[in-house]
Amino acid sequence: MDILLLLESALNGALVGLMYSLVAMGIVLIYKSSSVPNLAQGAMVMLAGYIILAFANQLHLPLWVAIPLGIVTMFIIGVGIERVALRRLAGRPIIMILMMTLGIEIFLRAGSMTIWGGTSRPLPIGISDAPLFLGPLLINRAYAVGAGVAVAMFVLLVLFFRTRIGVVLRAISDDYTAAWSVGISVERGVALSWAISAVVATIAAVLWGSVQGVDQSLALLLLKGVTVAVLGGLDSIGGALLAGILLGIVEGLASIVLDPLLGGASRELVDAAMLILTIMLRPHGLFGRHDIERV
Fold it and tell me: Looking at the domain assignment, is residue 78 inside a domain?
């Protein structure tokens, strides 16, 4: 087997994995600040893509205007989801909140299908299709840009959680009751975490939409995001970044080794296997706290 082909697949896989980590960061953000596992993150990525295209195509705005408007819109939608659907479930069993996020996922997917249909729409953001050359290796330019954005987002989130607001969100996650007792507005903190997660979903939508177009398949990034989040640790943003790289590399190598044997679909098989094995063997993930409960 060609070693250069394996290296090229692993490197491109690592870049794809960093793009997966953008979806995982949205899941981690909400869990880190409110201990809620969000199963609607994939649909939020999809919704953000459709909203940006609506601004660009229906209102005929340039993308450099449509994308910021999409970010603001998704910020408001994130706050609205928490305010309308989740706030009234505060203090309820976690399984009820989990089912609510799953219901939101289904609702967003069905609603987007009703409004925009199932046709894939391109989201060109000006990234050239020409590959980058790293010696004899060919690197996908869109993946490289997406990976760079993911690393930049990771740095911003790390800095955010060191601010006063970020510390407040972490305190809310550690103990709702204690946070309330010292005067912290838990409701506002949780709403902010949903809003920031929606913004991260918008950034992921721009990058993934430029790679594969905007359609219902963007919601399927939930599987990638959940796998990366669980593997890295549901409360670890750094873990999401490193787990994304690991998953991407394994996927890339599996596509070379297993696809000829299985006839394709090895990436989905790898995702499912890694998710199941992580929950069985290390439920707190590679970098998560040991007191994270199984869901």
Answer: yes
Looking at the domain assignment, is residue 261 inside a domain?
A: no
129-173: per-residue pLDDT in tens? 888 988 888 999 999 999 999 999 999 998 988 888 888 887 777
Question: Could you tell me what percent of the chain has a pLDDT over 90?
Answer: 61
Give the torsion sign (CA, 25, 27, 30, 35).
negative
Contacts of range 287-295, beta carbons closer than 8 Å, 24 or more positions apart: 287/232, 287/233, 287/236, 287/238, 287/239, 287/242, 287/243, 288/232, 288/233, 288/234, 288/235, 288/236, 288/239, 289/233, 289/235, 292/233, 292/234, 292/235, 293/94, 295/37, 295/94, 295/95, 295/98
User: Which domain range does residue 72 map to?
Assistant: 3-218
> 77 — phi, psi (to 5°)?
-65, -40
| 8, 255 Cβ separation under 8 angstroms | no
Q: Is the pTM of this model over 0.90?
A: yes
HEC string of 22-63?
Answer: HHHHHHHHHHHHHCCCCCCHHHHHHHHHHHHHHHHHHCCCCH
Check if the beta carbon of residue 50 is closer than 8 Å to that of residue 208.
no
pLDDT reading at 16 higher than 90: yes
pLDDT at 176: 67
Q: How many domains does the chain have?
A: 1
% the chain with pLDDT above 70 = 96
Residue 84: inside a domain, yes or no?
Answer: yes
Longest Cα–Cα distance of the chain, Å, equals: 62
Is residue 68 one of the residues assigned to a domain?
A: yes
